[in-house]
Amino acid sequence: MIKDSILIRFLLFALLLFVVVPVWGKGNVDPKQLKGANIVIGNWWENYNTDTWKPRSDYEERELEYRKKIQRDYGFKIQARQIASYEQIGAVAATSTMAGKPAAQVVFLEPRVAMTMHNRRLLAPLSDSKAVDFNATDPVVWNQDVRRSFTFNNKVYAMSIGYGSSMHAQVLYFNKRLFREAGLDPNLPYDMQKAGTWKWDAFLEICKKLTRDINNDGIIDTYAMTADLSTEILDAIVSSNGANYIDRDSRGRFVNATGRPEFLEALQFSMRLKREGVMMPEPENKAWNWYQAMFNNGRVAIRIEPHYVAGQLGNMEDDWGMVLFPMGPRAKNYVVYTDENVMVVPSTYKGNELDKILMAVQLWFTPLDDDWKSGIYHSYRDTRAVDETVALIRNPSLQVWKYHLFIPGLERGDIAWAMWWHEGDPAQLVESVEKSWNALIDEANKIISK
To answer: What is the pLDDT of residues 328-344, one digit of tens each?
Structure first.
């Protein structure tokens, strides 16, 4: 989760640059109907008013002029406003909506928070609007995975622009120096990912080579990886085998997917990594984020976390690369396991008001060109992270959503936190949480079916 202000700026910058390919049509509302409207897009990271905004790049300069022009041409006002902190934005959005005075006409929320608002009947059904066409391809890209994920009873309750813009996809970071010192090509993960040979068995062998007793004193000096965060590690492994914790059936209902063969196989591989000795043991009196320093300071060669962590590695001394997690035996291709921050509209707004809000949002986020790469190269240590891995992250056909975020009270840590110490087979661990998980899933399905 991004709380640091530097990371938030990194996220916003990526959002503005990733939105580059069109998906929604122009809709059935004449933008001239926006005259007199005053739209606020609420977020937790930044204020953006065209009267005061200071551009930070050539793209932002052009974008600022475009945003000024649409407001002049159509006679309306629109701005982004930090309406609350990261921790409080969900509460602010909910309480202000219940009071009949929403803090903003549009609010950015994480999926889990947006789902909570949906369950409390605080979101407007966006698909009721005549202003947008979900099947058109112009002038912006509206994320179809978000549309599908937030469709309940044939109504859409959340929207997002572009693919990968929130930088929530699970990725694997690797230390090039440690690869080189272990006798491996520092670009090996890139080469294997590109060749389609980046798979579990090869990954395990690489991990063994990266786990080294450098001075032959019987003590391991560098490890392939740490065992934390176990939830992020299990996310990557499960999804890379075509599995998921929670899935949706043909009726849109949530189902427990942990008993499926592809999930159990992934859990088995996760447990095997620990048994093979390639994971650094937890130090005594460790801080909760001890694993971060182990990678950042060159003690372990691999860190598995979401894409936004790239924003934390700017000061890392060693060069690093970024790839997707290798394919499991049941996967046909690489998997982008992800979710997106979504935009929602409070239930206060209906009819013509909703039409105007969605038209304004579409105009505000209309891209100026299709160059999504040039503005983000500086955030990585090599061009291959962008040209190859980010390109995969942006591919809608590879995306699998984190549906566990939609189940109130469900904690995937029930499995991930226990797996390193579990002495039975994976099925027994899954069975130990099956009853409680199914009860939570049943309750979630009751809510969405109302």
So the answer is: 999 999 999 999 999 99
